[in-house]
Amino acid sequence: MRLLWLKHHFSVNIWTLLLLGSTWLPLAEGSPKSPFRTFSVTDWSLTHLVVHNKTGEVYVGAVNRIYKLSNNLTLLRTHVTGPVEDNEKCYPPPSVQSCPHGLVTTNNVNKLLLVDYSGNRLIACGSASQGICQFLRLDDLFKLGEPHHRKEHYLSSVNESGTMSGVIIEVLNGQNKLFIGTPIDGKSEYFPTLSSRKLMANEENAEMFGFVYQDEFVSSQLKIPSDTLSKFPTFDIYYIYSFSSEQFVYYLTLQLDTQLTSPDSTGEQFFTSKIVRLCVDDPKFYSYVEFPIGCVQDGIEYRLIQDAYLTKPGKALAKYLGISEREDILFTIFSQGQKNRVKPPKESVLCLFTLKKIKDKIKERIQSCYRGEGKLSLPWLLNKELGCINSPLQIDDNFCGQDFNQPLGGTVTIEGTPLFVDKEDGMTSVAAYDYRGQTVVFAGTRSGKIKKVGELLPHRVECPRADGEMCAFGFVVFRCRVECIPIAPLCQMGVLNLCLMGGL
């Protein structure tokens, strides 16, 4: 289950569900027809949804399809992306070069869906043909281009939705960029796990998706070393959520913990969550820093990131936290422990981080390293322990790295503030809403429920009244259906019975 507010623009994964609402809302199979506006499909599973931040129009990514809906969920356009004749062993894809492997009819799973506002286009990346992307005109989903002739055009053939994440950085009078994080399924010779790409105005420009910087030694990419894959063949990095804040791009990732997991492939696997940060204007990736991130409640560790949501605090929450209303805060969902990435434990926690705390922890770590203290501590990437080098450089909040003391790993987990623990259903998504200065948070579960967490402060946070003031809308997305639900009336309801088409 994932959550999205209409007033924000995020691309989200919806293998489970994308929801907004209040209190516990069971979504039971076989229940009466929903009273809300609905868009349904019967053939293909839905994977992503993004809302245009000005028109309110809705774009939905699916297996083999991209849909454009009006803000009341009327179908406006459909674009077909598959099935295609393909074989994941074909590199380059068969559309570029004949392949010795047999081709089979293959579904094209939408893995990334972003609105490029400056280009008036949609970027839709799939799993077929080694992970190529299509550029679709926002008005009618007309295909403007499909770059597929260069190795930079192939992002990843992994077909698991919800594991790739991207951020578009618009540069005034300059070159727009696309930061992409993706699992690679062991194919480090083909795909970087993290990269910064050029977004050209012309979709057919040969430089489209080229690395922002590249010479014979350094480029705007990060690859999983072959030594790491030799030792841990299943090692990969799953990019759960991404965002930009000030001059930085952040990713929340889930990856194999190489310190706890035995190289013996038959042993038990442990995973760890990381927050990754890069400077937007660092084409050589010298600013790369990652920190373990998680939450602890009553002595129990929650280390498996499920979802996150970046927002600003309401007036009351900002005052309570001692920060400005202009500061970014991050709500997160973690599952308990460090095992079972695909089917995490049902015990989960909703946590709160301030970006200020995260930035301070990162700055302290960089300052410590530039005093020559400790090591770089990034075993999966460096495969050896390199000591920090003492330097007189002054490290401030805007520091973007040098060609030494990088890449850098955090040694202490950044801990969030636990707000709510669910031990029954397993929370998988989160969204937040500022209503009249109060911050109301909504958490969705894998079993199809929503929890309104309104008591973040000592006093009770009231829901909006159903007095005609429609502050926001939420979109409920099942595997095969999208529903539009007004937030204000939800707060007056107890239980909603929504039909589950296709199940979760």
UniProtKB/TrEMBL annotation:
Domain Sema: 22-504
GO cellular component, one term: plasma membrane
UniProt superkingdom: Eukaryota
One GO term of the biological process aspect: regulation of cell migration
Leader sequence segment: 1-30
SUPFAM superfamilies reported in the protein's UniProt record: Sema domain
PROSITE patterns found in the cross-reference section: SEMA (PS51004)
GO MF, one annotated term: semaphorin receptor activity
Keyword list, A-Z: Glycoprotein, Signal
Gene3D superfamilies: YVTN repeat-like/Quinoprotein amine dehydrogenase
Name listed for the protein in its UniProt record: Sema domain-containing protein
Organism from which the protein derives: Callipepla squamata
